[in-house]
Amino acid sequence: MIPLARAVLGPEEEAAIIEVLRSKRLSLGPRVPAFEREFAAHVGAPYASAVSSGTAALHLALRAVGVADGDEVVTSPFSFVASANAVLFERARPVFADIDPRTLNLDPEAAAAAITRRTRALLPVHIFGYPADVPAFEKLGLPIVEDACEALGAVHADGVNVGARGNPAAFGFYPNKQMTTGEGGMLTLGTTEMKERVDSERNQGRAPDMGWLDHDRLGFNYRLTDVAAALGLVQLGRLDGMLAARARVAGWYREALAGFEDLQLPCPDEGGDRRGWFVFVVQVPHGADRDETVRALALRGVQSKPYLPAIHLMSFYRERFGHREGQFPVCEDVAARSIALPFFPEMTEGQVAEVAEALESVLYAALK
Ligand SMILES: Cc1ncc(COP(=O)(O)O)c(C=O)c1O
What we know:
Layout: H1 11-23, H2 31-43, E1 47-51, H3 54-64, E2 72-75, H4 82-89, E3 93-96, H5 108-113, E4 119-123, H6 134-138, E5 146-147, E6 169-172, E7 185-189, H7 192-201, H8 226-257, E8 280-283, H9 290-299, E9 305-306, H10 315-321, H11 329-337, E10 338-341, H12 349-367
Parallel strand pairs: 2-3, 2-4, 5-6
Antiparallel strand pairs: 1-7, 6-7, 8-10, 9-10
The chain binds pyridoxal-5'-phosphate.
């Protein structure tokens, strides 16, 4: 079976983890600040705070821009559920707006139309690593939290890296991501005030100069361990190579699937925006059964999955907010036809050809 995703892990990662174990500093040790400094420098952000997941990063980012009970946050329904859930953690309401059919990111015009007097922030998601149009959102004059969990390595048209605009931007390090710490996340930040607040809130509300059991605000346990940070430091050293390898695999896919006209491939970079390759998601032609395609691919030894379902149509969101089909037609059409294909840095050109052949024959049979 050709797997969907696979992290690149070598002897350097093993050695780094063993070193932490031998140091006996498994948490609150020196590797977390070192990882933060190197990550911030890599992205070009003034500050970074390491946390236990991308979801934790989103939660603390929303708190940092002041999202609270009763507020609304305008966001994309075409995302991993965590981006909307994080809004609910603060008893605020995620207000969805439709997506751009080319980039699959939150459409700035639709987002502007969804703003009300209760809107406290905008939460664009850089989906599948393609930069969201943050400059357009910035013109709307509201605080912005960026979900960059899928977008490490992406660059905006103006040359600024995703995560370096000064808005809090959340990154995730689950093993399918561009780099991994097992579980983990990072929040890039533009000001010392935000960095201090986030560092305190990830550690139960304790300020750095306070005693061990003294806390001056509400906080959480969103700390990243030193074991994870050590892994992160090694992975960060490999990042440019892994991103280049992902881009190469994407290029092979593009060539191998070019002949299949009705199959929609990930949009190519346009206008200077640069994708940080995360997944290779195609949309099957109208008339093909996406779920059947996934099953038929599995029978041919190719792992794939429907990716992503529309958040507003998930049962929890339907029941809680009364969402129904037809509300966000672009998102719904894309969500019904999207499949993530196997995609990882060490994938070979032969494996890409195998996946492409399997997909084409499954789709030809389905559309016949
Ligand atoms: C768009 C998006 N947002 C948020 C997350 C949440 O990250 P994590 O799984 O690290 O909590 C993910 C990762 O799966 C994601 O893809």
